[in-house]
């Protein structure tokens, strides 16, 4: 189903799933649609989200692809998506940001400037830009909630994935600052930390432990549904 087909009433629960076409994000999208959510999936590769939409064809909720491409207006692709979402639905109830991913490479002392910049852009900066454009869309929601997923590298220094460890730790502080800036009247900000490799992700080489994507998605939906959820939820074996 395309973005133009969105028909979310005033009582519908609307989720923006940033990174919803990715390895982990698609599990969140499917679980949310099966729980009755209207799910908007911003993506720079609309074709990559088609199988997710097809998987949810018989779900109580609906999934809609929102192309994350500049529309000629001010700002970048994130701003363009925010404008499209605002035009499509009367409100957004929640945001789940599953951005970044895994990368292997040399140790940090040998990492090139370009590789370091790419890691910052794809992980930490992507989360900042997503928060900047999607958090304002939560205004007026009954229980506005913003969830970031993170990985074990934020807790454990990973040799060969040092940039992911550094950006993951930075992502956690980013979330802490957003929570502090929002205060008691702001949205709920939560981190769902995946403490093992996501099963089926072939970017993980010989993982020590794995966790099912469905289990991560269940944890995310638990946070969305429970205002009393802790600020950080861990999922793993």
Automatic annotation (TrEMBL):
UniProt superkingdom: Bacteria
SUPFAM superfamilies: NAD(P)-binding Rossmann-fold domains
Keyword Transmembrane on entry: no
CDD domains in the cross-refs: SDR_c
Pfam families reported for this sequence: adh_short
Cross-referenced InterPro entries: NAD(P)-bd_dom_sf (IPR036291), SDR_fam (IPR002347)
Keywords assigned: Oxidoreductase
GO terms for MF: oxidoreductase activity
Keyword Oxidoreductase: yes
Family the entry assigns: Belongs to the short-chain dehydrogenases/reductases (SDR) family.
Stated name of the protein: NAD(P)-dependent dehydrogenase (Short-subunit alcohol dehydrogenase family)
Organism: Luteimicrobium subarcticum
């Amino acid at each position: 189903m395309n973005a133009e087909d969105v028909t979310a009433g005033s009582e519908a629960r609307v989720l923006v799933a940033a990174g919803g076409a990715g390895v982990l994000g698609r599990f969140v999208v499917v679980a949310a649609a099966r729980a009755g959510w209207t799910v908007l999936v911003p993506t720079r590769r609309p074709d990559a989200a088609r199988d997710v939409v097809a998987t949810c064809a018989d779900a109580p909720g609906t999934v809609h692809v929102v192309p994350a491409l500049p529309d000629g207006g001010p700002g970048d692709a994130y701003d363009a998506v925010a404008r499209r979402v605002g035009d499509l639905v009367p409100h957004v109830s929640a945001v789940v940001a599953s951005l970044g991913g895994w990368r292997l490479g040399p140790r940090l002392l040998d990492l090139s400037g370009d590789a370091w910049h790419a890691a910052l852009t794809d992980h930490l900066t992507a989360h900042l830009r997503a928060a900047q454009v999607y958090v304002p869309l939560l205004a007026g929601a009954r229980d506005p909630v913003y969830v970031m997923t993170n990985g074990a590298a934020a807790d454990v220094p990973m040799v060969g994935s040092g940039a992911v460890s550094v950006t993951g730790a930075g992502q956690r502080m980013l979330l802490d600052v957003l929570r502090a800036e929002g205060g008691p009247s702001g949205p709920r900000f939560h981190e769902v930390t995946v403490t093992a490799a996501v099963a089926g992700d072939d970017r993980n080489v010989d993982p020590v432990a794995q966790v099912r994507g469905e289990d991560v998605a269940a944890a995310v939906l638990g946070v969305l549904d429970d205002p009393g959820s802790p600020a950080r939820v861990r999922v793993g074996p």
